Amino acid sequence: MFGMKKIRKINKSNDSSAKTEAKHIKIPSSKVEFIEKLKEITHSPADLMIKEISDTITIIYVDFLIDVNTLNEQILPTLEKTDCATPRIIKESLLVAEVDLGSELNKCVLEMLIGAVLIHVEGNSELVIAKISAYQTRSLTTPENESQVIGSQIGFNESLATNISLIRRYITNPNLSNEKYVIGKETNTSLSVLYIKGIASEEYVNTVRQRIIDLDVSDILDSAILTELIDDNSLTIFPQMLLTERPDRFCDGLLSGKVGIVVNGSSMAILCPYTFFEFFQSREDQNLRWPIATFLRLLRFSAILISIFFTPIYVATLTFHYEVIPQPLLVPLSESRAIVPFPPIIEALFLELIIELLREAGARLPTKVGQTIGIVGGIVLGTAAVQAGITSNILIIIIALCALSAFTTPNYVMGNVIRILRFPIIFLAGFWGFYGIMFAFCLLIIHLLRQSSLGAPYLQPFYPPRWKDMADSVIRLPLPFINRQPILTSRKVNDKASNNNSSNEEKMKQS
Amino acid sequence: MRKIKLILILLICCSLITGCAETKILERISLVTLIGYDNGDEDKVTATTVVRQINPEFESRVETQTETEATSKGTRIKVDMKTAKKLAAGQLRVVLYGEELAKQGIEESIQTLLSNSEISTSVYLAVVRGESKTLIEQNYEGISDIGQHLYNLIDHNIEQQQLISSTLHEIGRDNQSKVRNFALPILKKEGQFIGITGTAFFNKGKMVGELPSSDISYLVLICDSFKSGTLELSLDSESISPTVETKGDTLNLAVDSIKSKSIIKVTDAKKNEFDLNILLKCRLLETSNKIDISDPKVNKTIEKAMNEKIESEISRIIKYTKEIESDIFGFGEEYRSQVRGANLTEEKWMEMYKKMKLNINVDVEIIRNGVYE
Question: Where in this chain does the record put each Spore germination GerAC-like C-terminal domain (chain B) (predicted)?
Fold first, then answer.
């Protein structure tokens, strides 16, 4: 019911003219008129089923959207027994869990399109809505993009109901709030905002609510699109909200005070606010012993640095700063470079491009063909390029190391960012050497410092420094040391801050 | 709009500035790894450079070029004219000076090296007995790259504290100080090998004296904290009898320092009196006689004899440096830092150094014996 209210709210707040007009469509009490009106609204699609049970009762549904078994075993027999009845009696006698009465045609049609059977009784301007929707959904499988060795092996699928049921299996708690919204003028996509009352900060919940309500879009086909629409900064390359297909990771976020969004039709759920460093954490870190988890995290963070800066350092060193090459490396480096006709920047860009092409080709091709790409790329291009004298073999090792490092990022979106970031830095390194790299590094830090996620600083817990949250950042200390509700999402801190802000604003208004 | 303009201007500037950066692509330059300076005719300097040439046949060639010109930059231009690729000195590891040039003074050369930003200050400096040109140009069997070979030779000996560290940084520091002089190792060609034969002492950038390589350990002991060096001593049997009996006249010992500390203290500024306290904790590596070191009496006696021996050696060395007027140990610096209002000048300090009274206290402690690596 709460969700329904919300929908009405959206209708009111958004474009009132069109919706208020639609709201006034009343349900004709005559059967013929009703059917005609309905056909007019839905443009009589081929899968619209209209069935006359008796002279008075007509049922209407969309084929394939409903559970035929329930229709046959529960609804049809009941309707046949009750002959001359009012919708209220039918509603009470139906042995279906979700039955409702509707008096607005548009709303009823919407329900029908989600998967309800509409029951019209001659002479009544109310409809019985029996929701017996049956989705054709994919069965629950292991998450493919966020695989982990230890831990649950279940991933979200594309059905909102299944996903929420998965979440409720993890968090059995009446405080788990679920606010339903419908957005997208054309698609009417339903989505749920989930948070745990008492843990999640009201400020963040309000922000998310506000941003979703204010959206004016025609369609939302995937949650990834939604993240871009409600991000703090849509122009930046860095993601500010997490897209995850793991229910355990999602619930972990909810329990630490984050706000989650699940979109119907998308197997990725959104978690926010999210900080830069959290993107490099894996749920599995919690499942491993802490020294191992700490080691893996440090490995991942050093992999970022390697991945972003290793090739640029190679380029800068060989182009400008031959002085810094250690003496034992001098001979092998220069000998491998000797036959290469290009300057290091061209050589590096060429190889990086090959790697990116291989990756992209591998991602787009069917899995069976994808394997050949690996062979072609790894053996043919790699060795041939060195033998042909286009690249040096030391650079091949460096590029491979960088590519490998980029793939250690547990989050795919962030992994892409790390991979792409390298290119502008290679250019700067090729033009200005170490100065260029430092310039890029400074720009990167400044940019990251300016980012926020739902208004929370993006580089927490390093800036602003939150010592308590350090225990679960680039390292992971034993669980007793970890604050389950980090300062980032802490209710006390954030709500206090927001109260102060709001009171300030009020003061401003008064004055 | 203003922001876009700003970004545009920045981008244009960036792309234009790229032209200003001078590229030195590794394989398109000739790397100078060693330079030897000698005295040329008529005030000119002869530079012998070892250049590593990289060619596409996956092998690098080392060639030596010799040119004589009035300035070192002049020789560089001349050598540049002979090489296919641009000369670059950034990988320079060792700079050698011929004995004769060293005696005439190398102060200017050190300044030139220091002011070249391309050259690292970790370059090693050394003096060559005779001419550096002959040392460099000789074909040695088994030494493919003489630049690298000399670097390794000096580097590992400094690491093992068998040489006084002679990096450009340290020499430059000592040279710029008014009251301190520096010392460089002396290299000598010995048939097919190159060896370190001693230490050259400098005063005002001119080589004024030298000590053989057997004295280097004592120099390191005074100058530096001795961590890994080995000290060889021969004690008179008189000094240790009758507690320890020896077969011959002397007892030869080798000790390996575990920890040493040398402290220079000005005890009386007016009387020009200094204390040199050396604390040496060592382990006994080798003796020419079998001695029972576990006996505390024997231990004490040997320690005492070692103290005396080291004290006498050090006073001999200090006396020599006084004669040649080269304060490489930094007594002057200590005086300047410890005495308020010292106002030392070069001449004043040299006078003082010659008359300096030094009390040497050596405290040797044998803390381990029998096992070493």
Answer: 197-370
Homologous superfamily in CATH for domain B225-369: Nutrient germinant receptor protein C, domain 3 (3.30.300.210)
> pLDDT tens digits for B28-78?
888 888 999 998 877 888 888 888 887 766 556 777 888 888 888 888 888
Each domain of chain B, given as residue ranges in start order, spans 26-213, 225-369
Cβ atoms within 10 Å, residue B180: 21
The helices-and-strands tally (H runs, E runs) of chain B is 12, 13
DSSP E strand boundaries for A305-406: none
* C-alpha–C-alpha distance, residues A141 and A144, integer Å: 8
Q: Is B21 on the interface with A (CB under 8 A)?
A: yes
- Asked if residues A50 and A31 have their Cβ atoms less than 8 Å apart, the reply is no
CA distance A128 to A106: 14
In what helix (H) or strand (E) does residue B39 lie, and over which residues does it extend? strand B29-39
Q: Taking the CB of residue B268, how many other CB atoms lie within 10 A of it? A: 11
Short-list A285, A271, A282, A275, CA closest to A200: A271
Over A31-85, what HEC string results?
A: HHHHHHHHHHHHCCCCCEEEEECCCCEEEEEECCCECHHHHHHHHHHHHHHCCCC
- Tens-place pLDDT, residues A418-447: 999 999 999 999 998 999 999 999 999 999
Cβ(B41)–Cβ(B70) below 8 Å: no
Nearest to A304 by CA among A276, A343, A346: A276
Q: CB contact, 8 Å: B139 with chain A? A: no
Q: Which residues contact A183 (CB under 8 A, 6 or more apart)?
A: A10, A189, A191, A212, A215, A217, A220
- Residue B259 pairs with which residues in a beta bridge? B281
ipTM: 0.81
* Closest partner CB to B56 (pick from A327, A331, A339): A339
Contacts of A498 (CB under 8 A, 6+ apart): A201, A202, A203
